[in-house]
Amino acid sequence: MKRTAAMAFVVLASVSCGAQEQAASSTTAVPVPPASDPASETQTPVAVTPEPEPTGPPPFSSQVSRVTRDRLPHSWQPGCPVSYRDLRLVTLSYWGFDGKPHTGELVVRKTVTDDIVTVFEKLYDWRWPIRQMKLVDAYKADDYDSIDADNTSAFNCRRATGSSNWSNHAYGEAIDINPRENPYVTASGSTAHQNAKKFTKRPTKGKGVINPGDKVVKAFARVGWEWGGYWSGTKDYQHFSKGGG
Fold this sequence. Notes:
The chain contains four helices and eleven strands, in the order αβββαββαβββαβββ. By secondary structure, the chain is of the alpha+beta class.
């Protein structure tokens, strides 16, 4: 009886040890990752905003607005063939002799503002140069002084040169462009402005010069404006007017 009990104890002990070994052997070891090394980590790329490409010149712009009496202290007075209320101030872009865009002002009759904007947008797109563009009132409406300063202007309530009749400028339907490079030349070939003498012949080369049949003349012709360079005898190379004259 004692022997039987002893054998049972041995068998029980063996089973118990086997169970412990099996339990121990069935446990899977989980590896512990090493501590991360900041220096060895892959850096996430940072998005870099590219430098903006150089921009071109600003697009052509224009604005047509009513002109007030005080903007025309010298160029308009009672008795002019049109009321200042029938005139409009056109503020627009132009390409300067310095190769840069500028903003200028012209006063014209309200019926021709579309013509002016159409032509000057083409000139700007062509980068066709204009010296400056101020109201003639900057020169107290003195046509000679404005021309001598090579100023591009439009409305001026004055008589036509050498005539008692109103100029088309007095109606706001004419414009003089780069008058130094495009002078008024008499039938004898002379001009009143010393700084314009070298520009009295056509065709001629030069910045801001207008020649017969060139794109500036054609652009004005498309909107019904005639060029003074086509006059017989006297030539007015600076002058464009609605319907001529």
